[in-house]
Structure prediction request, 409 residues.
Amino acid sequence: MRIYKVGGAVRDRLLGKPVTDIDWVVVGATTEEMLAKGFRPVGADFPVFLHPKSGEEYALARTERKSGRGYGGFTFHASPEVTLEEDLIRRDLTINAMAEDDQQNLTDPYHGQRDLEARLLRHVSPAFAEDPLRVLRVARFAARYAALGFTVAPETLELMRQLSASGELEALTPERSWKEISRALMEDQPQVFIEVLRACDALKVLMPEVDALFGVPQPPAHHPEIDTGVHTLSVLQQAAMHKQSLTVRWACLLHDLGKGLTPEEEWPQHIAHEFKGLKLIKAVNERFKAPRDCQELALLVGEYHTHGHRALELKPSTLLELLQSFDVYRRPQRFEEFIAACEMDARGRKGLEERSYPQADYLRGAATAARSVAVQPLLEKGFKGPELGEAIKRERLKALKAYKEAASA
Ligand code: CTP
Prediction:
């Protein structure tokens, strides 16, 4: 039995990056031998085991054949005869298809090291097409390593294009897709993920609502970059530069979907795009079964981002409605995330990246003013039930009027 380190651990060590997960491949062993050594099997018919102490994954060298559509459609062939080279050739990218023994001797039959130096994400073999998730993986790696100068090799992009056209992407489960999407959004250059998906026509399969934004103009006075797709990518880039959370990044990606629905005659205006976009945001949320906090924030940012930008001009009653919609009294963090997304939206515009955003502090101040209304004195006055609710609202409105006056004084 020979054991090698494979995949990301080898790649990242060669790149000088920190290695977190280590995957191992075992050549020349049987399932029975692994069990006898105390390894725990991961699944019934899956030749992967967990190390009894470290918990790291050890996979028997295997060849994989696709026998049907979707993720279930795999048959594995693992046997002691499968060589290391046969195992490596079925992997996604050359830079992920290197192995290392315990002396750090590299096995690199598909020239991963050469591609690391050339900064190329290149598929190993036609077996790439056996797992359509790899289209998303390559786009994610492109986002992660963009700062190092990596790009997708033209022949790999072509293969990704064929996969996108084949209908295979539709067979991915929401869970697998979301895992890639959410990881990609948390990379330093998440906009590259979207760009690569667009370049191989996967974006129009996975998120046609986002794809539709490219080529849609906006008024140059507010949007010097003009194109709504370009704007969306810049907003995402700003969100990453400002180290925003996944929820904020997801909301940034989806905030302007409504602009894709505007009839051309109305361009570059997008009247009521905030409201029109909600059904699209909902559809994308549900398609990938995004976590509830991501779904909620995306819908709220979609509906209210223009309110955020106009915060200083809003009437106290409109401010109050905004705060109520966010339930800012019980969910202050969610309102903070809304403010962050609005700020990223304001900065994700050509030449305006460094602008100040006084709306942020103004909105925070308004939330504090509304929250400072005490309920106890109203209870003491005898208000209860719906009347109490109305009384609290009146007091909050008063507080917001005073706040607005003080702020504009
Ligand atoms: N792999 C693959 N195709 C997939 C998933 C994984 O070929 N759809 C192979 C690659 O060789 C990859 C290895 O399995 O390097 C381990 O996969 P994983 O742990 O998902 O990714 P890493 O490459 O380790 O990358 P990350 O740093 O993103 O975890």
